[in-house]
Amino acid sequence: MPLTQKRKNYILPLLVYFALMLVFPAQAISDEDMPWSNVSIEAYSRVYPRLTKALSRKKFALGNPIFIRIFKQTNELEVWLGTNNNRYELFKTYIICYRSGSLGPKTTEGDRQSPEGFYRIGADQMNPWSKYHLAFNLGYPNEYDLLHQRTGSGIMIHGRCSSVGCYAMTDYFMDEIYSLADAALAHGQITFQVHIFPFRLTDKNLTNYKTSRWLPFWENLKQGYDFFERNRIPPQVTVEDGRYLFSMQDKISFAYYSESPRSATSYLGK
User: Fold this and answer.
1) Residue 232: which of 104, 102, 91 has the closest Cα?
2) Which of 109, 159, 164, 250 has an alpha carbon within 20 to 30 A of 19's alpha carbon?
3) Rounded to an integer, what distance in angstroms lies between the CA atom of residue 98 and that of residue 171?
4) DSSP 159
5) Is 158 a catalytic residue?
6) Residue ranges of E strands in the chain
7) Which among 93, 59, 37, 53 has a CA at the least distance from the CA of 264?
8) CA contacts within 13 A on the Cβ side of 130
9) CA–CA distance, 133 with 97 (Å, rounded to integer)
10) What was the pLDDT predicted at 254?
C-alpha cells in the first residue's frame, strides 16, 4: 500500500503499524483490506485520548459497529454505534462545516447538489490519502440513483471544510469520524450504512413540503427513516420497481465486537 508523499517523519507510525499487524493479525488493520497513510495514523494518535474517554462515558468501545445519518437542513451528521443488545445508540452529533446545493437529491454531474438516499461504505471506499485531509466515498450513484439515470462521481464525506457536492467536515471532526469508521471496519464490520435525508422526516415536517417536486421521493426515504426510528437497527435496503424497500437484516449480532474491541487507535494512543 503506497504512503502519502506529502508528509515526513513517518518511520515511527509505520513501525507501530507493522507491529500491530504481526501481533494482532485477526483483529487489527489488515494491510490488504484496510487502506492507511501517515495522515490516518496521525489522526488515530490525536483522537485516541479524547475519543476513548467519550466512548467510555456512553459504554461504547472503539471498534463497535458504526452507522451514520445526515440531515441536510440542519447540517447535522449523527454517528450511531452498535451495542451489546444488538441495537444502535447515538454516540455524537457533528456539525457539517460545508455543503453545497439545496434540499433534494443530486441528479446530474456538476449540479453542485449533495446526494440524498441510502449508501453503503466498505474498506475500499476509505481514502486516507485524500487532498481533503481524510475521506470516504459514499458510493454515489447507488443502484437507485443509476436506475433514475442520476450521474456524478467522487462524492465524499471529508475534511478541509470546503467542497462542491460533498459533505465537508472540519479536520478536527473528520479525525474522529474517520477513526470510528476505520476501527469498525478493522474489527469485522464488512460495510456501514450512511443515510442522508433532507431533514428529519416526521409527518409534521413533510407537511411543509406538500408542493415540492421531491415529495414522493422523500416519502420513500421516510420509510427507511421510520424503520430505524422504530427498531434502532439500520434496515436491509434494496431497490425494486424504482423504489427503495426496507426489511430487517437477516443476521444481527454484535457479539464479535463486544469482547473489548481494539484497533490501531488504542495502541497508538498509549
Assistant:
1) 91
2) 159
3) 12
4) S
5) yes
6) 66-71, 76-82, 88-95, 98-99, 117-122, 126-127, 135-137, 156-158, 167-168, 191-197, 236-240, 243-247
7) 37
8) 25
9) 14
10) 54
How far is Cα 242 from Cα 209, in angstroms, rounded to an integer?
22
Taking the C-alpha atoms of residue 226 and residue 10, their distance in angstroms, rounded to an integer, is: 46
Helix 38-57 to helix 11-23 angle, to the nearest 10 degrees?
A: 60
Residue 195 falls in the annotated catalytic set = no
Query: Could you tell me the residue ranges of all domains in the chain?
Result: 11-268
Residues 89, 232: Cα–Cα separation, whole Å = 7
Residues 97, 133, 161, 166: which is the catalytic one?
A: 166
pTM of the model: 0.85
> Which is higher by pLDDT, 49 or 270?
49
What's the length of the chain? 270
Q: What is the mean pLDDT of residues 63-88?
A: 96
Which numeric CATH code is attached to 11-268? Answer: 2.40.440.10
Q: Which of 97, 133, 148, 158 is catalytic?
A: 158
